[in-house]
Specification:
45% of the residues lie in helices and 20% in strands. It is of the alpha/beta class and 404 residues long. The longest helix is centred in the middle third of the chain and has 19 residues. The protein is elongated. It binds zinc ion. The site of zinc ion (ZN) has 7 residues, from loops.
Amino acid sequence: MRDTDLLQAALGLGTPWAVSGSRFDALARRLDIDITFAKGARFACPCCEATGCPVHDTEQKSWRHLSFFQHEAYLNARVPRIRCEVCGVKRVNVPWAREGSGFTLLFEAMLMPLLRSTPVAEVARHVGEHDTRLWRVLHHYVDEARARDDHSTVSRAAFDETSARRGHDYVSLFVDLDGPRALFVANGKDAATVGAFADDLKAHGGDPARIEEVCMDMSAAFIAGAAAHLPQAEITFDRFHIVKIINEGVDEVRREEQKSRPELKQSRYVWLKNETNLSSGQRELRDSLARSNLKTARAYQIRLTFQEFYQQPTRKDAEVFLKKWYFWATHSRLPPMIDAARTVKRHWNGILRWHDSKIANGILEGINSLGQAAKAKARGYRTSHNLKAMIYLIAGKLELALPI
Ligand SMILES: [Zn+2]
């Protein structure tokens, strides 16, 4: 078998395309394969698909292909531009690459699983390409898959924001709780992001009026956005965020009190951690401090008791419980705990809603860790456009239409 025949068979080329030659440079670690088309061949118009269009002229093009053993491989061809009676002069589509790409389809198919599992900068180093070229490939397949993605069954969603860059801009993530999967990522963390989510839902066959449940933190912007754009949605506030606000109350009481009670110094975490996460030493410290007549110990009891809200058997029991807790906290004479209790009061229905929706705790934490994972893979990603595409790639459960 001649090497051109071997290469032609391996590339799977059919008429009118054929391998005309190859050049191997061991020093440059590079194989170049030249492809040509039969003289007098006619091609289909890439726009209207009319067949039998004559060649007008050709343009030299080159594509990176899968490596030949340890050597980089390139396909080179003079790509014809045809003259279509309807569309004019157009460049034909070649069967081994998509229009506008400098990589072959097989090279891209090799890249995509790598880009899902490995930081882009690392893949770029590994294949010896600039990362902007890899981001272009990633965007192409993600955009195409998202365009086909169907959101018509979405009825329960969760929102959370994550900082796109340290201390800088934010992106908001909208997740299908029943996927679970990332449906939409918006720039910013204001109420308008919920409107953008509703629009995107419609664009994917979904209906904002079908959204019955949403889970979120107590961000005023998200609450306003849900009221404006998701007319049927009942809000459940995420347990972690509610407890966090009560914890902050406890911490503030402690910081104030330790000015006069030095034994409280170094005790910060024993009040904030959950029982199961304390070491035996920390537990002893907590128990001995809790027995003493400290404001911090009282604040801690208020925080600890709040957790029992989630153990109430029914919503009715839970509401009776929460009223008692509220009365206790607001009469504690501990201003930070009174403030925390008032925050609970202002978000009353969304806190109680948990007893109807039973949306799993930790959903938002899960979303947030997705954001972190995407950031790690997109390290040095330069733009939030790239970060968003990476979130869709790793958390969108998209069906990528890869050529193999
Ligand atoms: Zn045409």
